[in-house]
Write a structure and sequence with these properties.
Layout (H helix, E strand, L loop, with lengths): L1 E9 L2 H6 L1 H17 L4 E10 L8 H12 L3 E3 L3 H4 L3 H9 L1
Parallel strand pairs: 1-2, 1-3
Length: 96
C-alpha cells in the first residue's frame, strides 16, 4: 500500500486570514490522490505551515520530510513553490 504525507504552506498575511490558499492546496492534493495515486493508499501525515517560502528553515516541512523518509512514503504538495521559492533548496531535496 502506498503511503503519502501531505504538506501545505501559506506565506501569511491575507493568505493566512482567508484560508483560501490552504483550501486550494487541499483541493489539489485531494484531486491528485483521487485520480493518480495507487489504491488503496494510506495518508500517514498532514503538515501545514504559515511561513514565507524564502525561509528554508521550516520545522513542519522538515517533519513532513522526516516522516516520509521513515515510513517510505511520498511527500505530496500542491505545487513546487509551496516547498520553496529557491531552486537550490528544491534541488537539494531532489538529490536527497
Amino acid at each position: 500500500m502506498r503511503k503519502y504525507v501531505t504538506y501545505k504552506r501559506v506565506s501569511g498575511g491575507e493568505n493566512q486570514k482567508s484560508g483560501l490558499g490552504l483550501d486550494a492546496q487541499e483541493r489539489d492534493i485531494q484531486l491528485f490522490l483521487a485520480n493518480y495515486s495507487e489504491t488503496p493508499f494510506e495518508l500517514i501525515g498532514e503538515f501545514v505551515e504559515v511561513q514565507t517560502g524564502t525561509d528554508d528553515s521550516r520545522p513542519e516541512l522538515r517533519a513532513a520530510i522526516a516522516l516520509a523518509k521513515k515510513e517510505s512514503g511520498i511527500l505530496v504538495c500542491a505545487k513546487l513553490d509551496r516547498l520553496s521559492r529557491r531552486v537550490s533548496f528544491l534541488a537539494s531535496l531532489m538529490e536527497d
